[in-house]
Amino acid sequence: MQTFLSKHADDVTGTLSGFDRLVFRGTLRRLVYPEGMKTFLNSVAVLLKDFGKYVLAASNRLKEASVYAASRASWPLIYMALNPCLTA
Length: 88
Fold this sequence. Notes:
The protein is mostly helical. The chain contains 3 helices and no strands. It is 43% helix and 0% strand.
């Protein structure tokens, strides 16, 4: 980490540290409202009737990209069930 920081010191404005991993949570505020979602879907040319197919395809692309990146880095893939307390 120190090697990275010394090499890129001009581009680093701060660092975060934690135990093993950090989890960032948030929302895409424009998408949590019906009109915002309709605007987004219109911008990517997806009809409301095709929303389910679009979401499944997007989810699969994200999963494949994540698995690919992890395998290239030789990181283990470990399924972690979502904590029910975090979904409330």
